[in-house]
Amino acid sequence: MRYSIVRRIKMKKIMYPLSSTQFTQEIPGIDADLLAKSLVMTFKNGEFITKELTELRYLYFIMEGRAKVVTTQSNGKKLILQFLSTDDMIGDLTVIKAEEEIKDVIAMGETTCLAVPIQTIEMQLMTNNEFLRFLSQYIGIKLLLRMDHFKEQQTLEAKMRLAKLLLEITVDGEYHEKHTEIAEYLGVSYRHYMHTFKQLKEEGYIYKKENRYYIQTDSLEKLIQS
């Protein structure tokens, strides 16, 4: 079922025509009445969707775009925990009280989200068994994906893991991430990561232009399928 969204807020003075926005995910309890109380937010690349040490005001559904979940370690170092994409949720663990302190969630490229007020979620959806079942299944799938990530760290060579990740996180073919953070996410040393990155670059899967890195999407897809 499709519902047109009729409310928007502007982030960094970006404006979009109302007619361009439709929420197409089929989620129990998300009806026209609830959407009328919600907002559509569009974040620019690098903009915080949620931020550590702040209160979560909305449950976000990513309508278009990508984001990364980042935490700050005790030594101040940033650590990427997960990458999110279209149809993912932000704030699901907070809604069910499993997480007290929210993480930084940062837009990767232009990212548009449906933002449902937490108060509305608590009043209208937390007694909806179908919504709770949907939420449980979503969290379960996320857990299985995390298990797959750790399994690949032990069974798949770094070159293939990096190739797969590049396809998942590049924005319009451009690679923005910090080498140190991606090395940690892949579970390899910085030296090993740079060796692997250089290897992909020498083989033509990555190229540099005006101090920016780009990927050859078709070639990387063939590499993974080989």
TrEMBL record:
One of its GO terms (molecular function) is DNA binding. CDD domains: CAP_ED (cd00038). GO terms for biological process: regulation of DNA-templated transcription. Pfam families: cNMP_binding, HTH_Crp_2. Residues 43-133 form the Cyclic nucleotide-binding domain. Keywords: DNA-binding, Transcription, Transcription regulation. The keyword ATP-binding does not apply. The keyword Transit peptide does not apply. This is Cyclic nucleotide-binding domain-containing protein. It comes from Vagococcus carniphilus.
